[in-house]
Design goal:
The chain is α+β, with helices and mostly antiparallel strands. About 15% of the residues lie in helices and about 35% in strands. The strands form four sheets. Strands 5, 6, 7, 8, 9, 10, 11 and 12 form an eight-stranded antiparallel β-sheet that branches. Strands 3-4-13 form a three-stranded antiparallel β-sheet. A two-stranded antiparallel ribbon has the order 1-15. The longest helix has 18 residues.
Length: about 280
């Protein structure tokens, strides 16, 4: 609050025209009647008028009460917003080729592979790392924020099946786990076509020793790949990978079985399914 300073000599004007003491002229001058000046009114100060501050506070409080500030308001009678329910779009569904497993179908169901029941199919999800991207995905659990395993489909610009399978296995092991890896040949295989014929394929398995030190970082990992096609200079590759220490004792056999289950699906075996809706509150 701005305050105006008080007069230096309250009660009298500074009569510069009067040259005598006390406001009188010298004796040789005509007598002049001294002029008394009323003191100027001093600014009002809170400390000198506490009643004014109390009145002001009471006035403000009255205005706020009139406007409803500080008053308890009745609870709203409107119902809470309804939860958001999202119904996923229908997706392709095909029967599993491995008994007791579940299929992961791509596109319109023209191809598929199978995963164990404890895996989560995510056919509409793409995932990967620099140098390798996977579509038609599936995932295996988590440790903290780390995924224990996954699978998907990609291509390699290599016609030789063994070279394509090795490249995909090495690229994923390096990008996902770092450290060193050793690629070992597994077996020859075949991929069934929709017309019942088969095309040759090649399976390899890479053993990776990651360099990470986090609590959930894999100490040992496996990457299985199956390459097929290659006639046009590009090979299709199915990839499955996992933390070999936390994913169960049969994880190596499971990964090889996942990639080996890849096939093209006849039109008669293709269907659609709609996942259950998800509720967001």
């Amino acid at each position: 609050m701005n305050r105006r300073s008080e007069d230096a000599t309250p009660g009298y004007e500074d009569n510069a025209a009067l040259r005598g003491f006390g406001g009188y002229e010298p004796a040789d001058a005509p007598r002049a009647q001294p002029k008394r000046i009323r003191p100027r009114p001093k600014p009002l100060k809170w400390r000198r008028a506490p009643w004014f501050g109390l009145v002001f506070i009471a006035l403000v409080a009255g205005v706020l009460n009139a406007l409803g500030v500080g008053k308890s308001r009745p609870a709203s009678s409107s119902p809470p917003p309804a939860p958001l329910v999202v119904t996923p779009s229908p997706r392709a569904a095909v029967p599993a080729a491995v008994a007791g497993w579940q299929s992961v179908a791509g596109r319109d169901g023209s191809y598929a592979y199978d995963v164990p029941p404890n895996w989560e199919p995510a056919p509409g999800t793409q995932h990967g790392w620099a140098g390798i991207r996977l579509i038609t995905s599936a995932f295996l659990g988590k440790c903290g924020q780390e995924t224990l395993g996954g699978a998907g489909v990609t291509t390699e610009p290599v016609a030789d099946l063994d070279a394509a399978a090795r490249k995909a296995a090495t690229d994923l092991a390096t990008a996902a786990y770092g450290g060193t890896s050793q690629v070992r040949p597994e077996a020859d295989a075949q991929v069934a076509k929709a017309d019942g014929t088969a095309i040759p394929a090649r399976i390899v398995v890479a053993e990776a020793t990651p360099t990470g030190t986090g609590e959930c970082t894999a100490r040992h990992a496996l990457v299985a790949t199956l390459a097929f096609g290659g006639n046009s200079g590009t090979s299709g590759v199915v990839v499955a990978y996992a933390d070999s220490d936390r994913s169960g004792p049969s994880i190596r056999e499971d990964l090889v079985r996942i990639v080996r289950s890849y096939r093209f699906v006849p039109a008669a075996d293709r269907g659609t399914t709609t996942p259950p809706p998800t509720t967001y509150r």
